[in-house]
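Entry:
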Amino acid sequence: MVPGLSKSAQVAAGGMLSPGCPTTALFPRKFGKKTANGTSGGAPKCRNYYGLLFSLTLGLNALACGDSGDDSTLPIIPALLGAPGPRDIQLAAELNDAGVQALAIPTQESDAMIALGTAHFFDRELSGDRDITCASCHIPPLGTGDALPTSIGAGGAGLGSTRAIGTGEMIARNAPPLYNLGNPETGALFWDGRVSRDDTTGVLTTPSGVLNGATPSRSDIAAQLTSALAAQAMFPVLSNEEMRGQPGNEIRDAADDEATWAALMARLIGTSNGTVGGIAGYRTLFAAAFPDVTNYDSFNFGHAARAIAAYERQSFLSVGSPLDRYLAGDLGALTDAQKSGALVFFGAGGCAGCHSGPLLSDFNFHGIAAPQLGPGASGGDSDDPGRSLISGNAGERYEFRTPPLRNVALTAPY
């Protein structure tokens, strides 16, 4: 056991540090292998092909996750195994046009890094009032969501569909699923795309100006944010509704973003090189994950965010689905009904106009005239104009990022 960590973080870290399946202490690694019978909500540019909805649903079932195993280099439309029929030839062309590829396993961080990230993901210490964790809204057995149309953040009570508001507030938007977000093709994150990273230059675009641009003022933090997924993990802890909680705790009362992150690190590992405050177990985990850092005062919340991303990248990876196997040349991986549904999806239905690429998302922003659920993200205004809140572009009002559809059958409600 690692001294000083909460019980949930102890269990999580213990699972990561044991051999074999990295998260078996909390849930089966292959929890997503059950038969998927769901479907997605409407997609931008989809036409009214209601007569083919059943086939389309069967096609989406083929997107459900399979093994998190060794299918690490499945190529795009290789030489097919056996003699392809006309439907296979047509589907191969549609998949190529949509840029759909079998998913590869992204580069993983060290076991020690993943152990640190696991502890963070399940630990209430990262919330101001110590009453919520990342896993309160991203529950692994619930498809990495919370079974709610819109989440309930700090101050809430319970988990999943029975979670109550309590002293907290309803979050403006649905908790996005976490599957395969460590994939290199992942684009902007959050529903409004407020976080992204240029993987060529390493330049970040985030709500916090100290992290952005070619020469960010907090380059020490930005240097740890080696993916958009890591950058994303910097921000739920800054949201009063999500994790900071009510006034009166040192996280909520911090003056700005940098002060909030610093207060979290003081809570986790202490100050004065770890001699004042903090949690001994976390000092052990940080030192193991980042052996080149020799002074605890040199750690910042970027290190924590990078570790959280490492856990998410490894634990919510889902490759080897029927679609992946079909892309690898196994013509029998999809049923005839699923192939018919896929032909509608990638062809006449127009769904691939937005749901394209390896993750079945263009990671762009679209308005589909869907009615708003929840309180909205405009502060005192109940309206939620989506992307335009971030971009300031009136032409992007009510546009939101295209959701990836990998494992869509497991991630309701939509």
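Residues 14-60, 68-80 have pLDDT under 50 and may be disordered.
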